[in-house]
Design a protein that fits this description.
68% of the residues lie in helices and 0% in strands. The chain is an all-alpha fold and 426 residues long.
Length: 426
């Protein structure tokens, strides 16, 4: 009996909402900002690298300010099912839940930074600062409150998104999609006949470094909220298997389709697999993770093709295919692959009745609730982001001038000759 009490005490120190692992996981998620910055910088041109680094820095810093004053209360408050309410004082450090604040902040910043890639190389820096601030101020906190907040009405119904396929990645992806639609393509992306032309990133090595950093950070992203060693081990397994399978599938697909394996697509496939496993990481098994990864590896290829060649929407880094499309897929996957054999399984409807994925004999109920959550969250994000972009376009404008875009945003927006000054031609 005494040994059990000791084990429980140790477990409470390591895991749970006030455990050491909770904060370590938050630190790993913060480090993903470096991954996003490197990935986006590598996939774009050298003349815009400083601008991209600045945006990835400021979305976290501005997001922190927005979250302190408003966002934290909206997300974690319990006065209203819709928007939380101002029930907590973030400046009252005696009563403030510092664990919760930091943990939720780093996830909020991740949602905001996803948008940057889809709108890269032609967005005004001031415009970026404004809409990034608005995302962290209330767009993300309100929909996150519906799933993870003090009165999470979607979760109460049975909707499940353990680490954010819908709440973070789908929202960031749909915001980037709408922003790219408003901006239009970069100069030179399409010829006079409307055919897409590749605009190659300047450094695949930096992009690859970003992907490796993101994959490393994803173990905290998916695993930070785990409450036991068994659950953490299961989450680490699925978080490893899905992106690995997605990358292999993408490599084989591009090899067969183009005659050679595509490096940049395989890097994005790794991220696609990570996004897709984020919602079901704690409720599926290894087999489920394999299938989720297979679909993600194909879906990211389809998404890039669809935007480039059919919709003519210019997404320089593939953020929409990776985050929006695979965020949707990962959320749906919960309704297909959730299995009670997963450690700590706890999916239940509003009456407390356990629900299981369709492919594990659970019927369509959980799948239907997942679809309800997708529709609700996408509708909220799409409407509020569209209004935000319309207001910005009508006031200060969204896009830099043609001359500024050609010269590069490092020089025109930040006064930098080049992010690689020693290599600049004099």
């Amino acid at each position: 009996m005494e040994s059990n009490a000791i084990l429980e005490a140790v477990n409470s120190i390591i895991f749970g909402s006030h455990g050491v692992w909770f904060l370590i996981g938050a630190a790993l998620v913060y480090f993903m900002q470096a991954g996003f910055a490197m990935c986006e910088a590598g996939f774009t041109r050298a003349k815009n690298v400083g601008n991209i680094i600045m945006k990835n820095l400021m979305d976290f810093c501005l997001g922190t300010v927005a979250f302190i004053f408003v966002g934290y209360n909206i997300l974690c408050g319990d006065a209203s099912k819709f928007w939380g309410g101002f029930t907590m004082n973030p400046f009252d450090f005696g009563s403030m839940d510092c664990y919760s604040f930091v943990f939720n902040l780093v996830f909020c910043a991740t949602c905001a930074t996803i948008v940057s890639g889809a709108m890269a190389e032609r967005t005004k820096f001031l415009t970026y600062c404004i809409y990034s601030f608005v995302i962290s101020l209330f767009i993300y906190p309100i929909e996150a409150h519906w799933v993870w907040g003090g009165t999470a009405w979607l979760t109460d119904l049975g909707f499940t998104d353990f680490a954010g396929s819908a709440v973070i990645h789908m929202v960031g992806g749909v915001t980037g999609f709408i922003g790219a639609c408003f901006l239009g393509p970069r100069i030179g992306k399409y010829d006079k006949n409307g055919h897409a032309r590749p605009i190659l990133g300047h450094n695949i090595s930096i992009a690859a470094l970003g992907v490796f950093i993101l994959w490393f950070g994803w173990y905290g992203f998916n695993g930070a909220a785990c409450t036991s060693v068994a659950q953490l081990g299961s989450v680490f397994l699925t978080t490893t298997v899905a992106p690995a399978v997605a990358t292999v599938v993408c490599m084989l697909f591009t090899w067969l389709k183009y005659g050679k394996p595509d490096v940049s697509m395989c890097l994005n496939a790794s991220l696609a697999g990570l996004v897709a496993i984020t919602a079901p990481c704690d409720v599926t098994d290894c087999f489920g993770a394999i299938i989720i990864g297979i679909v993600a590896g194909l879906l990211v290829n389809f998404g890039v093709w669809l935007l480039d060649y059919k919709l003519h929407i210019d997404d320089p880094v593939g953020a929409v295919a990776v985050h929006f499309m695979n965020g949707i897929w990962g959320t749906i996957a919960v309704g297909l692959f959730a299995t009670p054999s997963a450690p700590g399984y706890s999916i239940a409807d509003k009456n407390g009745v356990e629900m299981v994925g369709l492919f594990y004999g659970g019927g369509f109920k959980l799948l239907g609730l997942q679809c309800l959550g997708i529709i609700t969250v996408v509708a909220w994000a799409a409407v509020t982001v569209t209004i935000t972009f319309l207001v910005i376009r009508a006031t200060i404008g969204l896009r830099v001038t043609k001359e500024e875009e050609i010269i590069g945003l490092d020089q025109t927006e930040h006064g930098m000759v080049s992010a690689y000054a020693d290599l600049a031609l004099v």
